[in-house]
Amino acid sequence: MANTDNSCSDLKIENQEFDSFDMIFQMQKELQEAGYGYKFEEMSLKEVVNFWFMNKHAIEDEFSEMFDALGGIHDGVKNAGWKPWKADNAKTTSMSVKDLSKRDRQELLMEIVDAFHFFMNFAISAGFSGSDIANAYMSKNKENYRRIKDGY
């Protein structure tokens, strides 16, 4: 159940310009429509729910791949970063993300981008643009700082 004691439904969202973020969301929407035949404006609520379930599973899978990539798939400790039973896990206490090789950092970045694809699908299927998300984020970020200041 959603947490209702800290609702932000009354938070004022200021509109700003985010051309490149809108462009990325538009590209993702076009990929889903042209590549997979989705017609977001015509989807029933039930179809959106089913689409979200599929994307929830996909993003969770990408999160798992991100965890593996965090350890360095090619030159690092691989998935030992999150598996304490592996011998290489002990090495992670003296490692940082900056220690990853260039190609392992690239792999990690691409796994993050893969997860971002599915995140965008949630927003797009609900009719939100990149600007909608960016503007809401900016307002929520300001609210979170206010909450920290007020001892939330």
What is the topological layout?
Layout: H1 19-36, H2 45-70, H3 102-125, H4 130-149
Helix pairs in contact: 1-3, 2-3
Structure, explained:
- With 152 residues, the chain is mostly helical.
- It has a domain at 67-126.
- It is built from 4 helices and no strands.
- The protein has helices at 19-36, 45-70, 102-125, 130-149.
- α1 (19-36) crosses α3 and α2 (45-70) runs antiparallel to α3.
- The longest helix has 26 residues, at 45-70.
- The model has no long low-confidence stretch (mean pLDDT 92).
The level of helicity is 55-70%
The end-to-end span amounts to 21 Å
Could you tell me the mean pLDDT? 92
User: Quick one: overall form?
Assistant: globular
Number of strand elements: 0
Protein structure class: mainly alpha
**Assembly state (oligomeric):** single chain
Count helical runs. 4
Q: What share of the residues does DSSP label as strand, in percent?
A: under 5%
Output the helix-strand order. HHHH
Main sheet record: none
**Uncertain segments:** none
Q: From the alpha-carbon coordinates, what is the Rg to the nearest angstrom?
A: 19 Å
